[in-house]
Design a protein that fits this description.
five-stranded mixed β-sheet; 5 strands; about 170 residues; alpha+beta
Length: about 170
């Protein structure tokens, strides 16, 4: 199933009759597992960019910079997503605690794809993009969250933001 076909996860009712006598927690776990099995899988950056474009188009479009997180399980199935920042014409503010709150509240999330658009139409990562990508990589490593990819997208193309996968967060003492 493509991401557009599964924009919202339908409630699972076909197997409800088999769940009689189970605890609420067991029923919820079965529903979640079935929904995740039916969710799209990300296998390459092009698919990730397509999903990010869809999320941006659902909000304000490409006129303003958006920062989006796509949450994945350990099989790269999409288990959630979040709009984690909206900005102006040249930048967006993302507050890391918002990203991590959304991540940790998403059942099954083990990894994340981070992306944003450039209203200018260029996919070239800026110097601040690269610095921030490494900063986020350090934060995610400290929290044991895998970053699968970081992207800049436009309506027709995308590019990957290079980042240090093993970045270490260095706290300076002042």
């Amino acid at each position: 199933r493509s991401f557009k076909e599964s924009r919202s996860f339908p409630s699972v009712t076909s197997k409800e009759h088999k769940m009689v006598g189970m605890s609420t927690m067991q029923r919820d776990w079965i529903r979640l597992t079935e929904l995740i099995e039916d969710s799209p899988t990300i296998t390459n950056p092009r698919e990730a960019a397509e999903i990010v474009r869809h999320l941006i188009e659902k909000t304000c479009g490409y006129a303003f910079e958006h920062m989006v997180a796509v949450f994945l399980n350990n099989l790269n199935h999409i288990v959630g997503h979040a709009l984690i920042g909206i900005g102006g014409f040249a930048s967006a503010q993302m507050i890391p605690p918002l990203l991590f709150k959304q991540f940790f509240e998403t059942p099954g999330a083990t990894a994340v794809i981070l992306a944003h658009n450039h209203p200018s139409g260029t996919t070239e990562p800026s110097e601040p993009d690269m610095v921030f990508a490494n900063y986020l990589s350090g934060l995610c490593n400290a929290l044991q969250i895998q970053i699968v990819d970081q992207l800049v997208v436009t309506a027709g193309s995308y590019s990957r933001i290079p980042f240090k996968e093993k970045a270490v967060l260095i706290l300076e003492k002042k």
